[in-house]
Amino acid sequence: MIATDSFLPLARAVARQEGLESLAVATIPHPIGGVEPGQLDDALAAAVDRVAEALLSTPAEVTTAPTATVHDAPCDVLGFLAFAEGRRWSDGLPLVPPTEELVARAVAATGRDAGEVLGLVPPSDRGATVAAVAANAVMAGCPPELLPVVVAAVQAVLEPRFNLQALTTTTHPVTPLVVVHGPVAAELGFNGGPNVFGQGNRANAGVGRALRLVLQNVGEARPGETDRATHGTPGKYAYCIAENAAASPFETFHQARGGGPAGAVTVLGGEGPHNVNDHGSTDAAGILTTIAGTVASLGSNNLYLRGQVLLVLGPEHAEVLAREGYDRRRIQEAVHAHPQAQVSLAGVSEGNLDRYRRTAPHVFADVPGDGVVPMLDGPENLLVVVAGGPGKHSVLVPTFGTTEAVTVDVRPPARGAPGG
Amino acid sequence: MDVRITDPSGTEPPTQRLTTSPRVSSLAGARIAVLDNGKPNAAHVVGQLGRHLADRFGAQPPVAAEKPNSSRPFEAEVLDRFRNFDAAIVGVGD
What is the ipTM of this complex? Predict the structure, then answer.
C-alpha cells in the first residue's frame, strides 16, 4: 500500500480492517494532489525499492488482546478526567464518569442486553455493544431516558448507505447531523425551536455528543490520525436538532420519513449549517429565490458528488410558503427547477472541472453553452424539515455528497423496564 | 479512592483476514495491478510506480483500474479482474 506520509495512521487502520496487521505501507511525501504530475516523479523513483520490498513481504495476521470491560478509575473529578484523557476517551470537554451503576441504568433504559452488538463502527470495526454505547452516553451527560434515541442514532449511522467509513475518515468537514422527530422529540425535551442548532438543551447536546463519542471511542476516529478532516467542524462536538412539528404548516418530516409511533431519528452526513437570510420577501416567490440561490453553492461537495441537501425551514418562511399552497413536494420541485438553483461554471477552475467530469459525468461531461449546470439532480434530493424559532431565517445543510440520509425508529423499552 | 467504570470502546474487531495471493519470491514476470482510487494524481502515482517496477525488476507492464469516486469502494467486478494477479498497488492519501 502506498500512503502519503500524513495519512499513514489511516493506511494502518485500513490494513487492520482487512485483517492484514502488518501490511507493508510505503510512504511518499504528502501531498500528491494540487501539483503537476511530473513534480511527483523524483519522490516516486525514490520510493520504488520500498514498494518492491513491500510487495514481496508477507503481512502478519491481526492479533487482538481483549479489552478490559471495566476499570478502576480515580473518583475525584480531576483524577478521573486525567484517567479518561490518558485513554483518549475525551472530546476535549469534561466527561461524566461511566460508573457501573450509571451505565446499568442507561442499558436498562434501552430494553436491550448489555452485550448486544448494534454493529461494527469504522474505521476500527470494533463492535458497538449496548454497554459501550451506554458508557459513551453517560460520559456525554445523557440521562437514561435518552438512550433509546442514542441507540437509534448509532444504528442509523451504521447503515451501509450512510457511508460512515468515508464520513469519519475524509478530509471534508462532515459529521452526522441527528434530526429527532415524532412524539419522542417533545416527550424527551428536545429543542426544535429557537436556537435549534445552538447551545442550551441537554437532550440535543447529549445525544449529539454521545454519537460523536461512540464514533471516537468505538470507531477510533481520532483527529489528525484516522479522522483526516482538514478543518473539521464544531458539529463534531455535538450536532443534533429536533423537528418543530407544531410549526410545520404541512406534512411533518416525521410523516414524510415514515417514522414509527414513538418517534424516529434521521441522520444526515452534513457540513455545518449555512444561513438563508430573507427579511425582505413577503411572498413565496421571493423566499424560494433566496433558498434556490443559497442551494447553488460552489464550495460544497454537492456540486461534484451530488447527493442530498437539507433545508431547515424557519417557521416564518414555512408559513409564507404554505399560505400560497406550497407543501413539501411543491417546495422541492420549485427549488429544483428554479433558475437560481443553477451554478455557473465560471467559478470552477479547470482542474476541478476535470475532476467533476469523472465524479458526475451526467452533469459535467457535456456542459451547455452557457456554462450553467443544475445543483440538484432531482427534487427529492432536497430534504425539507421545519425547525427553529421566530425570525426570517432558514438554514441549509450541504452534505458530504456520497451519503444518504437514514431514518431509524426509536424503540422505547418495554413497559415496566427499569429506567423506561 | 477508586470507582469502577465501564469501558466505552466496545468489542474487538473481527479478525478474519482478507484472502491474498501467495507472495511471489521475485518481481520478475510478476503481474501487478495498479488501482487509482480517484484522488487527484493517484493514477500517475500508482502507474509510475508500476512502470518503475517493470523497468527495474522485470515485472510485467502494470494493469490499471480506477474508481471515479474516491469516497466509494472499488466495484467487486473491478477487483475480480485482478483475482489471479501476483500483487497490487493501492493508495491512501491526498
Answer: 0.91
